[in-house]
């Protein structure tokens, strides 16, 4: 039986690259809301020695998370790697109006925290002990950036470190990867222009924006056999954008 990796938001962008990275050594399950997007990605990433399959679920909805977890673990299947990557900035422009501002915070908190907390809770009994890996994708915004989105991502940091402490004895590592700007995904939607890309890329002292492969490489390391002594960490990957140019 091949090892099993689950990647939420695996149909597009960073999640897709993580799925591709993990597919070399794992059977991979992609999770997302859009069936056609997932189906296409699963088909493209599958190959002679690679099995990638799609499970459709809105991970903010407990019943859908339960159904997806049951489908993934059918036949008492063990999960080796869980990558919590699904999320996004669902309110990039802060509103002046109080009701709208409230709605924006709730949307970003719900849209970023619930998929991680619910999916992890549902799959936890099936995680490999010892040797399981949980990696959660947050953002540089948890340290600096759009407040309602950053607040939501920051909420996942104490969640992850608490879980790491709880699961260390079981031999499961729990880490966070917090990327800076990464182009080539659906994240920025209609805000993405060549000028926006140039500006964001210029924020990093290394002189470029991140790529989905940069993030996937780091997640691949944390998911791998040699990372067993790394747990409870929040690892930033941003080309030095947070430290700035000095
Ligand atoms: N791009 C960046 O600059 C950047 C920087 C730092 C952190 N991040 C984080 O990296 C992660 C991946 O983002 P990305 O840039 O690759 O953008 P993306 O292409 O928009 O990927 C987000 C994925 O999450 C899925 N998703 C969102 N909500 C979901 C839900 N409720 N249930 C199931 N799936 C859901 C989406 O699929 P469906 O819409 O089909 O559900 C989509 O595949 C996100 O957590 C994002 O916050 C991105």
TrEMBL record:
Cited InterPro entries: KR_dom, NAD(P)-bd_dom_sf, SDR_fam
Residues annotated as domain Ketoreductase: 3-185
A biological process term (GO) from this entry: fatty acid elongation
Gene Ontology MF terms: oxidoreductase activity, acting on the CH-OH group of donors, NAD or NADP as acceptor
Pfam families xref list: adh_short_C2
Family: Belongs to the short-chain dehydrogenases/reductases (SDR) family.
Protein name per UniProt: SDR family oxidoreductase
Organism: Verrucosispora sioxanthis
């Amino acid at each position: 039986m091949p090892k099993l990796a689950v990647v939420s938001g695996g149909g597009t962008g960073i999640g897709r690259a993580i799925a591709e990275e993990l597919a070399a050594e794992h059977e991979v399950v992609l999770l997302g809301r859009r069936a056609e997007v997932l189906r296409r990605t699963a088909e493209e990433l599958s190959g002679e020695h690679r099995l990638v399959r799609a499970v459709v679920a809105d991970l903010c909805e407990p019943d859908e998370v339960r159904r997806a977890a049951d489908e993934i673990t059918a036949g008492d299947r063990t999960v080796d790697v869980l990558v919590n990557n699904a999320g996004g900035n669902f309110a990039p422009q802060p509103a002046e109006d109080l009701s709208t501002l409230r709605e924006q915070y709730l949307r970003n908190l719900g849209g970023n925290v619930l998929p991680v907390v619910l999916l992890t809770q549902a799959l936890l009994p099936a995680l490999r002990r010892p040797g399981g890996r949980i990696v959660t994708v947050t953002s540089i915004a948890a340290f600096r950036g759009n407040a309602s989105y950053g607040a939501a991502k920051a909420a996942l940091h104490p969640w992850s470190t608490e879980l790491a402490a709880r699961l260390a004895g079981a031999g499961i590592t729990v880490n966070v990867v917090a990327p800076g700007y990464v182009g080539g995904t659906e994240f920025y939607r209609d805000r993405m222009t060549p000028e926006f890309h140039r500006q964001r890329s210029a924020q990093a002292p290394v002189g470029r924006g991140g790529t989905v492969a940069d993030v996937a490489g780091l997640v691949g390391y944390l998911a791998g056999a040699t990372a067993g002594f790394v747990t409870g960490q929040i690892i930033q990957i941003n080309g030095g954008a947070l430290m700035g140019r000095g």
